[in-house]
Amino acid sequence: MQSLKWLAKALAMVVCLSVFLAVGKLLQTSLALPFPGAIIGMLLLVIALTTLGHIPPWLGEPVDRLLPHLSLFFIPAIVGVTQINVLDAFAWLLLVAYLFVSWLLSLIVVALILQRATRHARR
After folding, report:
1. At 57, which helix (H) or strand (E)?
2. Which of 99, 12, 104 shows the shortest CA–CA distance to 55?
3. What is the per-residue pLDDT across 33-42, written as a single tens digit (0 to 9) for each?
4. Is the CB of residue 88 less than 8 Å from the CB of residue 35?
5. Alpha-carbon distance 32 to 22, whole Å?
6. Does the pLDDT value for residue 61 go beyond 90?
7. Judgement on whether residues 63 and 116 belong to the same structural domain of the protein
8. Listed residue (48, 57, 58, 53) closest to 9, CA to CA
9. Which residue from 54, 58, 85, 106 puts its CA 20 to 30 A from 16's CA?
10. What is the average pLDDT value for the chain, to the nearest integer?
11. 51 membership: H or E segment, kind and range
């Protein structure tokens, strides 16, 4: 019974993420924004959760169980990048620089969120 509850919550999480992804892609195409629809959808999700003030259990519990396996989601992207053999050396250098900068920005954002969350939890 417990796994059935988790499955229902995971399904609700997938539907929620799919809705935000679809809305992000719709905004990207209709407004001709230079950002990918997935990024726009993710920002909309962050705005919605920030406005809500907490993460609902039906969204948080499946995420907590999937988070330790997050690195597995990078494997298809890495394999896809290694299959690109039309890039010259300069393009590879730009790709590595882009990956480093995006990694650094992600690290900074996560650190700021963690700092804010721990400060909020101490109150």
Report:
1. helix 57-66
2. 12
3. 887 888 888 8
4. no
5. 15
6. no
7. no
8. 58
9. 106
10. 83
11. helix 37-52
- Residue with token string 């929620």: 16
In a domain, 117, yes or no: yes
Percent of the chain scoring above 90 in pLDDT: 15
What count of Cα atoms within 13 Å lies in the side-chain half-sphere of residue 65? 11
What is the pTM for the complete model shown? 0.59
Judgement on whether residues 95 and 36 belong to the same structural domain of the protein: no
CA-CA distance, 108 to 112, in Å (whole number)? 6
Range of the domain at 107: 84-123
| Cβ burial, residue 16 (10 Å; 0-12/13-18/19+) | middle
Domain assignment of residue 77, yes or no = no
Looking at the fold, whether 14 and 46 belong to one and the same domain comes out as yes
Contact 52, 65 (CB under 8 A): no
CB 28 within 8 A of CB 37: yes
